[in-house]
Amino acid sequence: MRLFASLGAILAVALLLSSCGETAQVRSADLIIDNARIYTVNRDAPWAEAVAVADGEIIAVGTSELVSRHRVDGTEVRDVGGAFVMPGIIDAHAHPAWGGVIALYYCYFSAAAPPDEVIRTIEQCVSETDEQTVWIQGGLWTPKFFEQFGISSPRDWLDRISGGKAIALKDDSGHNYWVNSRGLELLGIDESSEPPPGGVYGRTPEGDRLNGLLMETFAMLNEALPPWSVDHYKAGIHHAVADANRFGITGWKDASASDTELAAYQQVDSEGDLNVHVAACLYDSEGSDVAGYEAMRDRFASGHVHTNFVKLFMDGVPTTARTAAMLAPYQPTYEGEPEVFGPLHMPAETLAEKLTALDAAGFTVKVHTAGDRSVHVGLNAIAAARTANGDSGLRHELAHAGFIDGEDIPRFSELNAVADLSPYLWFPSPIIDDIHTALGDRGSEYWPNRQLLDAGAPVLAGSDWPSVAEDLNPWVGIESLVTRAHPADLHPGKAWGEEALTMAEVLRIFTLEGARALGLEDRIGSIEVGKSADLIVLDRDPLGVPASEVGETQVSLTLFEGHVVYGG
Ligand SMILES: [Zn+2]
Description:
Elements: H1 2-10, E1 13-16, E2 23-26, E3 31-34, E4 37-39, E5 47-48, E6 50-54, E7 57-62, H2 64-68, E8 76-79, E9 84-87, E10 89-94, H3 96-105, E11 107-108, H4 115-128, E12 135-141, H5 144-148, H6 154-159, E13 166-171, E14 177-179, H7 181-187, E15 200-203, E16 210-215, H8 218-224, H9 230-246, E17 249-257, H10 259-270, E18 277-283, H11 290-300, E19 305-313, H12 348-360, E20 364-368, H13 372-389, E21 397-399, H14 409-415, E22 418-421, H15 430-439, H16 449-454, E23 459-461, H17 475-483, H18 503-517, E24 535-538, E25 555-560, E26 563-567
Parallel strand pairs: 3-8, 4-9, 10-17, 11-12, 12-13, 17-18, 18-19, 19-20, 20-21, 21-22, 22-23
Antiparallel strand pairs: 1-2, 3-6, 4-5, 6-7, 9-24, 13-14, 14-16, 15-16, 24-25, 25-26
The protein binds zinc ion.
């Protein structure tokens, strides 16, 4: 690759342009992709046949004839036989460093695993853990698991297979923990303990004992559990980068990165292995203030890691965990139950103050808002920042904004606020069933994507891996934004089919809109001269095949900054 990088400089040739008699430098290409069906995502010139690359940058896009002017002796020419080529995919909301650690080090069972599989997995982890290791960390469960299999005390159930270890298992949202008795003891949690703000300690129906479920306690547990090291996260990032490139992803926004994760990103980048553009949302740890974020931003930024982003949390999830903050109450679970709306993690005024201060300091903020009340409060906070600071041009994001009050939909475009559609949940699935149980009829008005786009709202999409999504595969999300049906047909029907988007809209969301979320729209997100050569070659044309076939898309080649990072 170093050879290619120098070719552009050495072999630059001057060509005489006969039409006007001027002499112009025509840059020599290191690589030309030819005989391709190139979808550029550039509205002015959406289609091309060939693209030329030099020094990691796109130097020509257009017809084969036009691009061939950049061909010299050392140019590598790849004839892709008419294959579909598009810009690399950008996942605007994922937790890849954490996901990589889970894939490599967690006592992992899938959210769909039945009890006998969970038991087998945990027993195996217990037997493989050495004597000195006190804690076993793993997951991912769903709140529905206990209801479905009649487990009234998750804590007692887990105690029976713990072999004396302390066990902490995360759920598939990453917000909630399932802990055994030894774990509660080490955490210092007993019957009289108060949960953290926004948190709930579950209790058994009979006897009113702690049942081992610690809802909305991830910040507290992050502090209390043995931390993963920089080396763990570096291995996790390597794992995630390889997976991302295999799926055609060349950019991601890490939706909450701790300082350990940021140190790992920085090291992987300095070693030349970070083959994705990364925007990292600085994690809102206890007591973070603007000066603290500024110090983190400056300390951890590197060539491919952009750190002027912050994540704030306003609520939880709209499942039977009932922790998303809603404008109307959840379904009662027994007759006469006091109304449950789901708690806000901080007062609305505190969010407005924080967001205004961060906006003034140049940070783009992603706010976790899963319920329609937290979305409303989030929009109010962005409005407060606009009033106080004027339009900073920063596009703050409301993440998981699946439930939105009708009157709030036009406010996204008015405030230049972004609806971050994640994770890929806009089709029938067990999680959607759980949301229906929690919210009743309102559960079917989830993800008003068509209304958002028609109202001019900026929209993003992200896998949220490893929350909910099993991997980083973007193609299932791309397919189902159009079909609103389960990508593998495992669950019948459509979820709110009127809210479907078109494939062209969706490809734009996963490329150019993602680039804007990373603050890199001038450098990535479309195939245009001067932009980074982040290109993918697919085995099918998403705009030409039925949308229901897009979920199985295979990427045959991924280029990141002109280098082949996946495929041959
Ligand atoms: Zn997330």
